[in-house]
Design a protein that fits this description.
Its cofactor is FAD. It comes from Didymosphaeria variabile. It is built from five helices and three strands, in the order βββααααα. The protein is mostly helical. It starts with 36 loop residues before the first strand and ends with a helix.
Length: 206
């Protein structure tokens, strides 16, 4: 089996002997992007070109809408009466990877535009959680009713996300990192690619 993409631009499977399984004589590797599944039959799977493969068991693993899906599938509605799902149809936009313009006092952790999939989860959450706690203390201390990031600040953070991503090989492949987990999803970087230490510096300056 040949690797069709640079190592790391798709989430690598680092399990022992994983790749070796594809080179076994009793294993067929089928590219269903070029030859999709036409139907399930009584004994197996039939592809669009007519090829039929028989199986005792079929494990269905269709993936899920990673990173943004956890938020867009919640039915969130903004103060402008628009849904997050519709707003993010073409591109996700956040501020610092912790807030979204139009959704006052709403914070999120380990989601879009944080280090997320490119980092150690607990370390990212620690940085984001500290920033959120500091922000809530400031809001309370100054007796503010709410905070709501501006659209311009959010667009600037989006430009920062894209600039970091464009300095890597991630944009060369439609991968999980680039919104590739769902058909029809926007091709965009949904993670902060600068690493946790730099992320902590940038959010700490706000």
């Amino acid at each position: 089996m040949f690797m069709p993409h640079y190592f790391g631009v798709k989430r690598p499977c680092l399990e022992n002997n994983y790749y070796e399984q594809f080179n076994r004589p009793n294993v067929d590797v089928i590219d269903i992007k070029d030859n999709p599944i036409a139907e399930f039959t009584e004994t197996g799977i039939k592809l669009e070109n007519g090829d039929h493969y028989e199986f005792d068991v079929v494990a269905v693993a269709t993936g899920f809408d990673i990173t943004t899906g956890g938020m867009t599938n919640m039915g969130l509605v903004s103060i402008q009466d628009t849904t997050l799902q519709e707003e993010w149809r073409k591109a996700a936009v956040t501020y610092l990877g912790t807030t979204v313009s139009g959704y006052p006092n709403m914070f999120h952790l380990y989601g879009p535009h944080g280090p997320t999939l490119l980092s150690n989860g607990p370390s990212t959450v620690e940085v984001q959680g500290r920033w959120i706690c500091d922000t809530i203390r400031k809001v309370t201390r100054e007796n503010l009713k709410y905070i709501n990031p501006t659209q311009e600040a959010s667009r600037e953070w989006k430009r920062r996300i894209n600039a970091l991503s464009d300095a890597t090989l991630f944009p060369t492949t439609r991968s999980t990192y680039m919104g590739g987990s769902m058909p029809g999803k926007a091709f965009e970087q949904v993670n902060y690619a600068g690493g946790i230490p730099q992320y902590a510096i940038e959010v700490g300056e706000i």
